Every structure is written in structure tokens, then in C-alpha cells.
Amino acid sequence: MVPEKTPLEAWIARKVMGSSSEMLTTKKLRDYQLNKLGETLDYVRAKSSFYRRHLTRHGAKADCPLVQLEDIGALPFTTAADLRRFGQEMLCVKASDIHRIVTLQTSGTTGPPKRVFFTEEDQELTLDFFHQGMLTMVKPGDRVLILLPGKVPGSVGELLQRGLARAGAEGFVHGPVSSPQAALEQMSRDKVNVLVGIPTQVLTLARVQKKAQVPLSPLHSVLLTTDHVPRSIVRELVKVWGCRVFNHYGMTEMGLGGGVDCQGLSGYHLREADLYFEIIDPLTGRPVRAGELGEIVFTTLTRTGMPLIRYRTGDYSRFIVEACPCGTVLRSLERVGSRDRMDLGAGKLLSMADLDEVIFPWDGVLDFSARMAEEYGKMVLTFEILMNGPNPERIEQTIRQEFETHPAFQALLEEGQLQVNLNFNVDTAAYGGGNGTGKRMICDQRG
Hints:
- Strand 6, helix 9 and strand 7 form a beta-alpha-beta unit.
- The chain has helices spanning 7-17, 26-47, 49-57, 80-90, 120-134, 156-166, 180-189, 199-212, 231-241, 352-359, 392-405, 410-414; strands at residues 98-104, 114-119, 143-146, 170-173, 194-197, 221-224, 244-249, 259-261, 268-270, 275-280, 294-300, 311-317, 332-333, 342-345, 348-350, 365-375, 378-387, 418-425, 443-444.
- The protein contains 12 helices and 19 strands.
- Helix 5 (120-134) crosses helix 6 (156-166) and helix 7 crosses helix 8.
- Keywords: Ligase.
């Protein structure tokens, strides 16, 4: 069966052409993006002291307008370090026009946090995207449990709840899962049939519910967001709940929303009327060839409070060159992988995504953390694994066998350069929500 076309296409057509009755084409979208990019550059030069200095210093002259989208490569990047150091200077409006400020303290850093500023108009753009993006998986009358922060006006959960209301669905903000039992009780009480949450937390709900046999209304859709989505988690959710599992990609700097799966589940379709995306070689900064993996860079096209020009995300993906099964003219972005990559030596790299596919497939595992240390010249990788039930010995044996045959570990284990420690906790009362809404990463304690 051919999947229904993403609702984002009609939405973007309205923004690009003023109507969705006229067919959106790649050329029309690119012409719109080029025009918006020019407007944004004029705007930041006029309003932001940082961008006036930043663009001039790197030779981007105001009297040399961009002729084609590819000319964006002549503009300098902005980075998380710029955001930390010069955030106030990036602002293009008065302080009184700022409606929400989000503070982001990156784990492992001791310097100033990133602060991202949004006007009310900026937040309306996010709200509009949430409304349109959720049409892929909800219909009027659906009841959606939101396992994301939502107590504060303008927070992601509150904006999503309002976006769902525009779609005719009812959203219930539970917040990140700290007690699986409490979340399952609300799912049952409110007759929830759609779930939005953090991958590992939603996995925990599925496995606790399966064991405890908590009665729930049938779930038809789950949307996973905020972090890398392990394929092993998707398989388990489909197995336990018989639902469709969608992915969302976004970050605070994008205005929370970046892209979302269509019903074809083949990659994210992007907010291309509000954001312009590039894929670059992280070492050279140059664009990669079509379909090649690289670092995601985006430029805001419609933001008023704190526009971002060529912002380096640190995330890695590629544009999918094949047409999406849904038939849209919009580009598709491959699922974003885990951004942390730890060097093990001899050209081998290790990421949390690698560990996820070793640990999560095994029944009863709810969550885990990992840290790498060095002892007497040997790398020591230690896991703290939370399980829902007894018999960790059987799981331990299976996981060790997986490590012994894994390409990243096999030689290191055989040569005695790596030791793996597995510590299990079967007390589910110890569950605290894992890393919350933060990105899960391997804690590197090597010198």
C-alpha cells in the first residue's frame, strides 16, 4: 500500500505560495528559500551586532547578494561556542520582545550555558509545525500522552499540547517518566491511544506494562523524540503494542522542531519553509555529495528573535537520494545517529548507538548507562543495567557473547586491551527516568 503523502507538503506549499491548491515544486521551494535567506541576512546585519561583525570578518559583503542557494557556502558557520559566548549579541529584538528563554548546559562543560531566545512569533512557528507534523499520526478525537516537560508556558510539552488541540486531538502532559507505574496508570485512566516520549523511557513503559499486564487502550502510534532512536527499541514497541513508531528530529536551537517521519517511515521530512538544511564534511566544512554522510547544518529562514546562520549541530546524517514512498517533493533526511563517538584506537570508534543494539534487544532490560575508564593500561567499559525481573545471569552471558563477536570489541577483548564489567540492578523502584531529556552518552573517564 502506498503511504499517504506527508501533510508537511501542503503546509509548506501554503507558506511558499500562499495556497496548497497549486502544486509545490522543488524549484518553487528553492526560490522561496533563496529569497528568505537573503531577507534573513539583511535582517541580521541590520539588527545584530554579532552578525555584523561575524559576517564582515569572514568576507561576506552586504553588497554581494546570494545568487543561488549553493552560495550559502561562502558564509561563515555559527557554533555552540558562539551561542555561549555571544548569545546576547545575536539578538535582533529588544529584551521586552523575548517571550521565552531556554538555557542549555551541555554535560561535561564548565563554561557558560547556551541560551536560546524566542519571540512569541518564533514560538508560533514551532506550534504550527507541531500541529502539522502530528497530523501524520493523529486524527480528531485521539488521546495523546506527552512524556516531555510541559509545565511552563512555551515548553515543548505545552506547545505540543496546543498543537494537538489544533488537530482536534487531546493532549495530556505527564512529563518525563520518573515512575513507570504512574505513567502507565495515567495511560489507562485517560484511555490514551497515542504516546509521545523519549525512546528509553517509552521502552521502559512497554516492558513494565508487558510484565505487569496493566490494561491499556490499544495504542496505534508512538512518536519518539529528543534522542537517538535505537532500532531495537522500535522493534520491541511494535512487538508489545502493535503500534506504528514514528521518529522526530529537532533541537532547541532549531526551535524544537526540525523534521518528522511520514507514514512511509523512511526518514524525516523537514521544516523547509522555516529552516534551510545542509550536509557538510565536518573536517573541511564543504558540502558533501548527494547521499553522503556528513554533519547537519541549518539556517533559520523565518525567525525574528535569534536567527541562526549556518549553525553546526554536531549531528550526522545524509539526504536520502531516493524518492520517498509517500510521493512528496520534500527532501528526506536519514535517521540521525548518536553524536558521541569515542576513539578506541586502531581506527575503531564507539558510540552509544553501538551499545544500544547490544543491550536493548534482550527482554527485561529497561535502561543502562556506560562509562569508560583506564586501569593499568587497559580500557575498562562498565555498564549499570536496570532490569525488570530476576535472572540477570542469563542476560549477562548473552550480552558477553554479543560483545565477543562485535566488530568494535572482538579484537580488543582477544588482545586483552579491553575489559567489560556488567552490573545489574533488578529493583525497578530504582528507576529514575535515566538521563531525562538529555542525550545519552558514554561517560569517558579516561585521562
